[in-house]
Amino acid sequence: MTQKTLLSGIQPSGKLMIGNYLGVLKQWTSMQEDYRCFFPLVDLHAITVRQDPNLLRERCYQFVALYIACGLNPQKSTIFIQSHVPQHSELAWLLNCFSYMGELNRMTQFKDKSQRHANNINSGLFGYPVLMSADILLYQSDLIPVGEDQKQHLELCRNLAHRLNHEYATEKSPLFTIPEPYIPPKSSGGRIMSLQDPSVKMSKSDSNEQNVVFLLDEAKSIEKKIKRSVTDSGSEILYDEKNKPGLANLLTIFSLVSGNTIESIVDSYQGKGYGHLKVDLAEALIEHLRPLQERYHELSSDRGEIDNILKKGAETAKNVAQKTLSAVQNTIGLV
Ligand code: TRP
Asked: Within its chain, how far is the Cα of 257 from the centroid?
């Protein structure tokens, strides 16, 4: 039985936060036991909006060190920076020639981002999902864990793969594996919402830092943010996403960091108030992040080590990616 290939990417923008960890990175660490994993840090996607060059570089190092501090193992998974593997840009160009303006124009993320960055609607932003398709197809990926907001992009990727497979159908194996969305087992992660507005997802790029607990936040700041998080005016502790979304979010976080079920947490807080829960949650969260922060600080003091990991990751990735790229170049008639 051959191992399935799983790939997912994060943009080096903003700062990694508990939603990335509890919702995504933790899942990745368990997936690396069962799948052949590729985890590109997608810097070429990040530059579709303006970035400060020094900040971007620092963030890339910080994100990689945090990946490892969170439990990603470079011996098991291929961790690399997208721009270190030029095959991504090359395949993206080829795929651009098979992508229609109409279908890219329908992408809701493009519409959103064009509104938010109205003074910089560049063609990289327009072609963003094509580059993402290249990321996925280069590695013949079977499974892509993505959130709701990326489903449309994955669908486009599948369409492109079908399109080329169909156009260049041969007796031999198809050019591309058709990727499937990976739906994690229900118990394994969580959708973490903003602390001040629990109707939207917590975002690593949120400009209001009060909404977000970052992985490198200090204890004091975590305490403050949790204490000030928005809950309803009631007092009874129960899990009700609709009517008590703020409290439901805190309970979700508590469950994920303590390993206890939401029901058992609710049970143990009967007769106690929100304040009590918040104090305990802050403490649990601080303790949960402590070892991770310690590993991060150790690692980040040795940039040479991170460079080595990235070099090795890029080599592994290149070998796989070049096979696909060569097959595509050959198939479409490039000499
Ligand atoms: N677009 C994704 C996001 O913003 C990041 C990404 C880039 C990605 N390439 C990918 C995710 C490939 C999964 C697979 O979240």
From this structure: 19
- What DSSP designation does 183 have? -
Catalytic residues: 113, 201, 204
**Best residue for ligand 1 mutational test, from 5, 140, 150 (most atoms within 8 Å of Cβ):** 150
SS3 labels along 119-158: CCCCHHHHCHHHHHHHHHHHCCCCEECCCHHHHHHHHHHH
Give 252's pLDDT tier (boundaries 50, 70, 90): very high
* CA-closest residue to ligand 1 atom 6: 9
77-124, pLDDT tens digit by residue? 999 999 999 999 999 999 999 999 999 999 999 999 999 999 999 999
Structural domains of the chain sorted by starting position, each given as residue range(s) with its CATH number in brackets: 5-184+303-332 (3.40.50.620), 209-297 (1.10.240.10)
pTM: 0.95
What confidence tier does 173 reach under pLDDT thresholds 50, 70, 90? confident
Distance from the alpha carbon of residue 131 to the mean position of ligand 1, in angstroms: 9
